[in-house]
Design goal:
Layout: E1 5-12, E2 17-19, H1 29-39, E3 44-47, H2 48-52, E4 64-67, E5 74-76, E6 79-82, H3 85-91, E7 97-100, H4 104-112, E8 118-125, H5 127-135, E9 141-142, H6 147-150, E10 156-162, E11 176-184
Parallel strand pairs: 1-7, 1-8, 3-4, 3-7, 4-6
Antiparallel strand pairs: 2-9, 5-6, 8-11, 10-11
Amino acid sequence: MKKSTVCGIVAIGPGDVIGKNGVMPWYSRKDFYHFRTLTTPFPCMFGKHTFENLPMRPLPNRLNVVLSSSYQDEFRGGIFCAKTIESAIEKCKDFPYVFICGGAKVYEYALLHDLIDIMYITKIYDNELAKNIEKNGNDYVRFPVSTNEFFASQNWVLKRMLYPEGKLPIECNDITTKFFKYVRVRG
């Protein structure tokens, strides 16, 4: 039976923050370049709320998959709407890779049900953001598991840090970003 490699991709700021009011609380050209490079031309899955808050939708040159328990599995206007992550993964089985792109509930479900094979994590380092999060912590959405603990477990192996020394093939003065690739060890 053919199966796609399921990848998670996320940018995580200080305190495991991934969003505020439906958007990322930072802007990183490096991370956008990294996201576009990895996910094109593969299917990208989003929870309904995350998809609705994308700055550009649907994402070009990718099958956009929107997840909601209120949907039936069907195509609407070039977007595949799926009731479950499992049905979406099954629909995308002819692609070598499929990317789970958020939000927090989608990541949580996929990680805790062992659906993700590879996890790409961008760590965002920004002192001003860290201070703001510390002051107004309840305003932010956090990644659903502690990245330090979860990805340090025996089930995950850090394969490599992408772009050594933070160098990407684009020029930009950006907030500090580091890119990591974790692979799930299957017994």
